[in-house]
Amino acid sequence: MAVVVPNLRAAFSLVRRKAGDSVGVVACRVVSSLSGRLQMPSVVGLLEQHELAARRRVDGLRKEADRIQAELAAAEQEWQEWAIAASHS
Question: Which residues make Cβ contacts (< 8 Å) with residue 39, sequence separation at least 6?
Fold first, then answer.
C-alpha cells in the first residue's frame, strides 16, 4: 500500500506525523516527472515487510539449527561407539 503526496514538503510532513518527532529515511519514488508527485510506502506496509523478513530469517535459522542438531547427534553417537570400542580393547 502506498500514499501519494503532491511534493516533498507534504512527504516530510506525513513522515513526521507517522513517526513522531524523529524523521527517518523513507523510501520514495517519483511517479511522474511531469507532476512531481512522490509515492511513499505506508508505515504499516514497511512494518509488514520487516516482519516478513524477520519471520523468514527465523525460519531459516531454525532449519539450520535442526540440521546442526542432527549432525551433532550423529557425531555424538559415533564418538560413543568409538569410546565403547576403545574401552573394550
Answer: 2, 3, 4, 28, 29, 30, 31
Instruction: Tell whether the model's pLDDT for residue 57 goes beyond 70.
Output: yes
Residue with cell 549432525: 71
Domain boundaries, the chain: 2-41, 43-89
8 Å CB contact between 23 and 16: yes
> 8-17 contacts: CB < 8 A, separation 24 or more?
8/38, 11/38, 11/40, 14/40, 15/40
Cell matching residue 5: 503526496
Q: Is the pLDDT of residue 72 over 90?
A: yes
- pTM reported for the whole predicted model: 0.49
